[in-house]
């Protein structure tokens, strides 16, 4: 899976929030702790930071095969979610986050596993550079994961809801499904929209993380600082 990495400056912001996230969760790490780890370029940097503490905590549950592989590469044990109870924290990036801590996620097509792992965690720590901080969600296309045979049906239903779904050609999720991206779809009421889209037959989930948004946002600023916000 290839992730966006637009500029060296943006990478520096992502690296700064990844380091801040490690400090945020460090007090939670004991030899019994399993944490949830997300997917994407920012999450990758967090995994690299987490690797420096490999062996001091039990391990992680990953939200994608790509993250699982990276975690193992750092010597971190990766657990099946079904073998793990509640986790104290889930750390992941976002494509957009609004003032109410609702997010669009799934630019890397890992939205469903991200939502599942996040649901099992007590806290969601979102790590993002300041380009992701928006007043209203929807500049970034909203991903919807669909069962392949339902793709056209779901697309027609989404058009009726005022969306412009585009099939993300060539992408198969880790769950064997496909993605429709909703372009130019401003989302004023994310909790309601998350639920409406999820009710369409054939939708696995959509990339709105609103009913369960972030609890903490670590936002990398252009001046090199990391702003911490708590819901
Ligand atoms: O939801 C995701 C992957 O499915 C990512 O968290 C989101 O796309 C942000 O990625 P990046 O950190 O590369 O900007």
Automatic annotation (TrEMBL):
One of its GO terms (biological process) is pentose-phosphate shunt, non-oxidative branch. The active site is at residue 114. Substrate binds at residues 39-42, 92-95, 105-108, 132. Pfam families: Rib_5-P_isom_A (PF06026). The keyword Isomerase applies. Gene3D superfamilies: 3.30.70.260, 3.40.50.1360. Signal peptide: none annotated. The keyword Thylakoid does not apply. HAMAP family: Rib_5P_isom_A. Catalyzes the reversible conversion of ribose-5-phosphate to ribulose 5-phosphate. Homodimer. NCBIfam families: PRK00702.1 (NF001924), rpiA (TIGR00021). Belongs to the ribose 5-phosphate isomerase family. This is Ribose-5-phosphate isomerase A. It comes from Zymobacter palmae.
